[in-house]
Amino acid sequence: MAKLSINEITTYRWSFEEDVHQYRAAGIESIAVWRQKLSDFGEEKGIELLQETGLDVSSLLWAGGFTGSDGRSHQDSIADAEEALRLAAAMRAQTLLIYSGARGGHTHSHARRLMKSALSALCPIANEYGVGLAIEPMHAGCAAEWTFLTGLEDTLDLLEGVGNTTVKLAFDTYHLGDSPEIVARLPNLVDQIATVHLGDAREPPSGEQDRCRIGDGILPLAEIVGALTAAGYNGYYEIELTGVEFEAADYGELIAHSRDAFHQLVTG
To answer: What is the CATH number of the domain that holds 57?
Structure first.
């Protein structure tokens, strides 16, 4: 059965504590935890709060930057990802979200080598903790600061090169859903998908991410969810909404709308 989760980025202005209590009050059973919010609240307190409320953790976001594009060394970024894995295991998160880092001054092939090197170091630790690694490619229109993986093919090639089932794809409809053939391809991709991020858009990404409410955009979300369901996907669907439209949004209403829109998608 499909499982709904809310990514804390969606409720940007709320604190971690508010997110946990408000999601639970809205009947949401899972949360995608943002490390920054959890750190601000306190990791130990946050984990205790999750246990008290019974809210499941679909994923922890994020770790990466293995190309050095954020100023850290390759080894420092790996050490940070190891710490993130420890934290993910402590809160029983299913996956840790991974962004490669921008290509920067590297050739594409060298950026891939850095990414593979990091994943090779992290896979044994992830296996030990029982946490999956979910790599998210992003649309080229808004990927510049986050990742050199801007297409599905590049990401699948990387997964094949790593050759470890601990590492899978974070499939974000905002970044990948506008491809004409994507719905037809999903049955062959489902075994490689760790988690699905649900976002909608009124136009293709250009610059900052500018999502819209589920169902208000042009992406074929019903067809995507239908194809995933038919192919046997039973993992998390994480609502991820960010952009100008949500800067002053009523988060309570937004969560309720997202919950209802999701149920409509999965029930047809």
So the answer is: 3.20.20.150
Burial of 124 (0-12, 13-18, 19+ CB in 10 A): exposed
Whether 54 and 31 have beta carbons less than 8 Å apart is answered as no
Structural domains counted in the chain: 1
Give dist(CA 235, CA 159) in Å, integer: 19
pLDDT at 100: 97
pLDDT (mean) for 21-49 = 98
Span 188-204, pLDDT tens digits: 999 999 999 999 999 98
Domain span at 22: 3-267
Residue 85 main-chain phi, psi, to 5 deg: -65, -40
Confidence of residue 111 (pLDDT cuts 50, 70, 90): very high
